[in-house]
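Entry 12.
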Amino acid sequence: MDLQTSLTKLFANAGAVGVQGIFQFVFSPQHAYWCEAGDPPRIEPGRHAAPDVTLEVSQQDLLGIMAGSANVEELFASGRLKIGGNLGLATLLPQIIDQARRGVAAQKTEMNQRYATPPRYSERLSASQPPLTVVQRIPAAQMSVERFRRDYLPNGTPLVISDALREWKLFNLDRQASLVHFAELQGITRHGDYVKKTFSTDRDFRSTSMADFIHSLDNPPPPSDASAPPAYMGNNIVPAQLLELIQHPPYFERSLYIAPRIWIGPKGTLTPLHRDDTDNLFAQVWGHKSFILAAPHHRPALGTWSTAPKGGLDGCDFNPDAPDYQRFPDARAVTFLRVLLEAGDLLFLPEGWFHQVESVSTSLSVNFWVNSGRGG
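Predicted 3D structure (tokens):
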């Protein structure tokens, strides 16, 4: 497949994820194409005078992305893909690629639009059970795979498994030693008041050396807005160079795991109340993180909205740390569970459970979303 054909295929259904803009691909100083997302997309050789996003990548790697043999986030993390311009728009590339591989346009999603949130099976499941008043903490030595799958997975019951990372090389390295493994890697950081723009591509994203960012954690530069949270390297793929330093938890079959993600930041980084569409195992490697949880069936009380017409990633307007009961009176009946994760802990966060997350100290976490198939 030649480059023009590959790029045409790549952007054929980009509108299905609400993408609008001009993407420029630079393969060498003399070899470039630009693509204007639209219906149909426009693909032209050469450089554009004012692209929204510029990507520097080899022709071989682009063809590998289209063939499914290369991962765009992995290429970026390892430095083989460089991105300039609007990084918020660039964060949609994995979705554009997924649409291209499927070859069928999905229901169109407007970028940064809020949609009504459809109910889920997990809501009926949690509503049928007695309210959970505490999240159990059980040592890994006492939590067999059989016990987990029998007592916690079927009913979607949150659980903290302590001392669960003992065999992880990353957990056993001190921070200075671990920097050797981060030296050539890069990630995307969030800046400004990213909390007010939850899940929006309008957030201030920047490309950053992972090692430089980790160096800055103890003395982060002050934000331009004193009320804004500190910079956060959130939801980056775990690069191949780090995969050998972690272990996939044994509680699900390895084939069910989605590529793990890494989260790095100083005290004060915050992800507001939201819920995911898969089960999640969240591993705390350095530092402490505070979680506030609410059961799935409390969706109507929390001002919940979705990022897509059919749901999936759902945000909330209710803030359990600053409750506005005048606006959300039904939230008075919600039982919020507070969990403090310590280094070495593994949190099972079932699909549908709302969670707000804050770094209590300098923190590095790895999470594993799981296509477990649990649900109605």
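Annotation: The first strand starts at residue 22 and ends at 28. The mean pLDDT is 93.
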